[in-house]
């Protein structure tokens, strides 16, 4: 049994080691991550291309001279939307654990199976986070079956038979749909652009017994949205309904307001992720003069349980940082002056912070081999990663030719250590 216990500890250590986290240095980097890449603000707005149509949709200075349909009114909506779902799931299943023990335990597999499965008991815990992001462009049309007041014929029928029979849309032989518009029956349109996100956290506990099972499930939803509406505009009878949706609203209006919507939505997302995300491991605060040098208290217990091979707790501290997906996680930082720090080669460039993808780690102090490995961590907030001679890694001479840089970094090694930050320019 002692052999199996040690085996399980080794498996758990490997699992913990594989959960590497990287820190985003700014909100911009968070938005560029795989989770939020579609929130990057629209960068290609050309003010010279803003048309008269966009002026009609967004102008805030002109008085409205539109003919509004009378009450009671009806609304017709046509919309086009794009939804992106991302789900992360973690599962703990004793049945899988039993199979793993059987594979590794050898001669002990039989007794272990008896102990674990003798009563046919199994426990499964599943935790998942699902993100649903949605962008929608909508055409909203205000109509009425009541005739607009006609002073020349005040006794005219309020609801003509042709309107009741044919509604407010006509269809040509070419199968294009048009709104039925006249002076007596004016229609108004409005465009709407919306961004929204829903975060669903699910936890399911399943306990399997001899004569049945007990399942406990909980779902928590958290959502937000940002919507902007255009000015009203008069609907015309010669423009197809689809053109109003895809051209006037989907292209003209959406592209005109998209930067503002996404820029503000980014702030809502990053603020929510940094302080209220359901997967937050700690309370994140920006680095300041009051940041405790011995680490962030919210991560002390987490740090205490990190018994990884090669981890020197006397030279490191726990920090609460914004992880690569934007929510706070606990990580380890090197706090000792002269302690070794990693240097990464990524696509021909050097970086002291772990990029999302990288080719190799260039500091030879990060030795290979499971039992002899010494994991290197980024420097704490008071320190910066430099070459041993005190120079910045930017001083390393690299070829301007991309292919030559790849060859240069393929086998290169540089010893880098954490050294005190030197303020420049009176900062």
Task: Tag the structure with descriptive keywords.
alpha+beta; 9 helices; 14 strands; 5-stranded antiparallel β-sheet; 3-stranded antiparallel β-sheet; disordered N terminus; 25% helix; 427 residues
Describe this structure in words.
- The chain has helices at residues 2-17, 27-31, 52-58, 94-105, 109-117, 161-166, 241-276, 300-304, 402-410; strands at residues 73-93, 122-144, 169-171, 177-179, 188-209, 212-229, 233-234, 316-322, 328-334, 344-346, 349-351, 360-361, 383-387, 416-420.
- It is α+β, with helices and mostly antiparallel strands.
- A hairpin with a 5-residue loop joins strand 3 and strand 4.
- Helix 4 packs antiparallel against helix 5.
- The longest helix is centred in the middle third of the chain and has 36 residues, at 241-276.
- It is elongated.
- The model is unreliable at 1-50, 97-109, 114-120 and 368-373 (pLDDT under 50).
Write the layout of secondary structure elements.
Blueprint: H1 2-17, H2 27-31, H3 52-58, E1 73-93, H4 94-105, H5 109-117, E2 122-144, H6 161-166, E3 169-171, E4 177-179, E5 188-209, E6 212-229, E7 233-234, H7 241-276, H8 300-304, E8 316-322, E9 328-334, E10 344-346, E11 349-351, E12 360-361, E13 383-387, H9 402-410, E14 416-420
| Shape label | elongated
| SS elements, strand count | 14
What ranges have pLDDT less than 50 throughout 5 or more consecutive residues?
1-50, 97-109, 114-120, 368-373
In percent terms, what proportion of residues is strand? 25-35%
Question: Termini separation (Å)?
Answer: 60 Å
* CA radius of gyration: 31 Å
- As a percent range, the share of helical residues equals 10-25%
How confident overall, as mean pLDDT?
77
User: What is the H/E string?
Assistant: HHHEHHEHEEEEEHHEEEEEEHE
Alpha-beta classification:
alpha+beta
Number of helices: 9
Major sheet description: 5 strands, antiparallel
């Amino acid at each position: 049994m002692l052999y199996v216990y040690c085996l399980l500890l080794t498996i758990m250590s490997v699992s913990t080691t594989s959960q590497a986290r990287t820190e985003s240095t700014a909100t911009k980097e968070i938005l560029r991550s795989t989770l939020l890449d579609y929130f990057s603000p629209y960068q290609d707005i050309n003010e010279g291309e803003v048309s008269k149509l966009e002026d009609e949709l967004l102008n805030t200075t002109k008085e409205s001279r539109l003919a509004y349909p009378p009450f009671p009114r009806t609304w017709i909506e046509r919309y086009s939307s794009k939804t992106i779902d991302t789900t992360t799931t973690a599962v703990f299943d004793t049945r899988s654990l039993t199979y793993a023990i059987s594979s590794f335990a050898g001669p002990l597999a039989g007794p272990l199976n008896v102990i674990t499965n003798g009563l046919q008991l199994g426990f499964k815990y599943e935790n998942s986070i699902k993100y649903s992001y949605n962008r929608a462009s909508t055409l909203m049309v205000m109509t009425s079956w009541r005739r607009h007041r006609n002073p020349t014929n005040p006794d005219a029928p309020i609801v003509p038979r042709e309107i009741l029979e044919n509604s407010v849309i006509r269809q040509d032989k070419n199968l294009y749909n048009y709104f039925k518009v006249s002076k007596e029956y004016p229609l108004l349109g409005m465009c709407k652009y919306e961004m929204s996100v829903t975060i669903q956290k699910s936890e399911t506990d399943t306990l399997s017994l001899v004569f049945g099972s007990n399942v406990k499930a909980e779902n928590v939803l958290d959502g937000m949205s940002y919507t902007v509406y255009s000015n009203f505009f008069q609907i015309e009878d010669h423009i197809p309904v689809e053109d109003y949706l895809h051209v006037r609203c989907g292209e003209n209006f959406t592209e005109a307001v998209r930067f503002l919507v996404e820029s503000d939505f980014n702030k809502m997302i990053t603020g929510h992720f940094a302080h209220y995300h359901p997967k937050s491991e700690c309370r994140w605060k920006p680095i300041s003069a009051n940041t405790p040098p011995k680490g962030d208290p919210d991560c002390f217990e987490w740090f205490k349980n990190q018994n990884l091979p090669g981890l020197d707790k006397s030279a490191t501290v726990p920090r609460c940082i914004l992880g690569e997906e934007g929510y706070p996680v606990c990580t380890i930082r090197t706090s000792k002056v002269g302690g070794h720090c990693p240097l990464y080669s990524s696509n021909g460039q050097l970086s002291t912070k772990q990029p999302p993808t990288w080719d190799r780690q260039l500091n030879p102090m990060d030795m290979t081999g499971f039992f002899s490995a010494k994991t290197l961590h980024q420097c704490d907030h008071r320190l910066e990663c430099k070459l041993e001679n005190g120079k910045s890694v930017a001083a390393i001479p690299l070829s301007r030719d991309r292919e030559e840089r790849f060859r240069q970094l393929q086998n290169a090694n540089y010893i880098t250590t954490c050294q005190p930050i030197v303020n420049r320019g009176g900062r």
